[in-house]
Specification:
By secondary structure, this protein is an all-alpha fold. Helix content is about 60%, strand content about 0%. It has 17 helices and no strands. α9 (about 165-180) runs antiparallel to α10. The longest helix is centred in the middle third of the chain and has 22 residues, at about 185-205. It is elongated. The two termini are about 25 Å apart.
């Protein structure tokens, strides 16, 4: 990763250590997926640079992205942890001046603990959503022949006769039937069908499948009637039924995913909210068939984690000794301008910088 070399600094934000934002974000995500002391050292280095360069928002967004993209159902407990940890950090960030915040031992330890836990989690890529043919929409004949499952109590509890069209009831029954059968792809098909049908009806008729405002009050009236909030309500009722039967024990994890979908957290975009919805369905279809239908522990060895976290001061001290960048890092990598830049630096100069970073980390672990 090039550090502040070969590109006009106007073109891209640069971190305190001198990394271009895209390079820093890419390298941070890459080492999250690697193992071993060298990878953990690099992760500490990049984390300290992000936080000390004013990139707390970006760092949180990257952590959420990684958890949804690469961990997901492998350990849903990670979302409970991230939600709590980020709330703590954001509260401190609001209350403290920037210099005090980045020098705070609890902040340094909290950020290191977060990334090390992410790095140590088992990995499983998120599922790919099935395609929904165009001819299934605005097609009463297709719907009548394919939405014929018996009525499910979870759907009936969520459905409202005064505000919801009957298609919601029938399609919801199909979704829950697929969940009960453990048919993940079919359940995701009906989730996506409902979302697409609702969007097309809104565009065609000016209104969707429901007028019930199930979304949070912070959203507009139109947003609160999005059909995905009906799906959330159905899944919540289905979870209650499963939990009452004792076939699933992920209460806090499932509630956290519901909260994530319904929240307006600026660090969680529309794509990640969709991932949360998919994960709720995946929990209902898959976890009930696990030998132990509960999330495993996030930390295998708390002593080892504690020792690693205790070293965070070394990495923060290195970054804090450098001057602040002219501008704080933006909250999203996409905020960078798209104007093409020309690389003029010599390759051996870039390699030399990377080698120096690797050597410093290796020396630290050899002490």
């Amino acid at each position: 990763m090039a550090a502040g070399v070969g590109r006009d600094p106007v073109e891209q934000p640069i971190s305190r250590k001198g990394y271009f934002l895209k390079d820093l974000a890419r390298s941070f995500l890459q080492v999250l997926g690697e193992t071993g002391p060298i990878a953990s050292g690099k992760l500490g280095h990049f984390t300290a640079d992000l936080i000390c360069s004013g990139g707390l928002d970006l760092w949180q967004m990257l952590c959420w992205d990684y958890a949804f993209q690469h961990i997901g159902i492998a350990n849903p407990r990670i979302f409970v942890y991230l939600k709590k940890k980020f709330a703590e950090l954001n509260e401190k960030n609001t209350a403290l001046p920037f210099t005090t915040f980045v020098n705070s031992p609890s902040v340094q330890q909290g950020t290191f603990e977060t990334v090390l836990i992410l790095q140590g989690c088992p990995k499983k890529l998120k599922v790919k959503l099935p395609s929904v043919p165009d001819d299934t929409h605005n097609n009463d004949a297709w719907f009548a022949s394919n939405a014929r499952s018996s009525e499910k109590a979870a759907v009936r509890k969520a459905w409202d006769r005064s505000h919801d069209l009957v298609q919601l009831l029938a399609a919801g029954n199909e979704l829950v039937t697929a969940v009960i059968d453990g048919a993940l792809e079919k359940a995701l098909f009906w989730m996506k069908w409902l979302q697409e049908e609702d969007a097309q009806m809104r565009k065609r008729l000016g209104g969707g499948l429901t007028t019930y405002e199930r979304g949070p009050a912070t959203l507009s009236s139109k947003q609160r009637t999005n059909v995905s909030f009906f799906i959330c309500a159905v899944l919540a009722e289905a979870y209650k039924e499963f939990a009452a039967k004792g076939i699933i024990r992920m209460h806090e994890e499932f509630q956290t995913l519901l909260d994530v979908y319904r929240s307006t957290d600026k660090h969680i975009g529309a794509a990640r909210r969709q991932d949360a919805l998919v994960l709720m369905i995946q929990i209902l279809t898959d976890v009930v068939r696990w030998k132990v239908p509960a999330a495993p522990s996030l930390v295998k060895d708390p002593i080892v984690l504690g020792r690693a976290v205790a070293q965070c001061e070394v990495f923060y001290k290195e970054i804090l000794a450098l001057p602040l960048p002219m501008k704080p890092l933006p909250s999203r990598v996409g905020a960078i301008g798209k104007k093409k830049v020309v690389v003029t630096s010599k390759e051996d100069h870039l390699n030399h910088h990377l080698d120096s970073v690797d050597a410093a980390i290796m020396n630290f672990y050899e002490r």
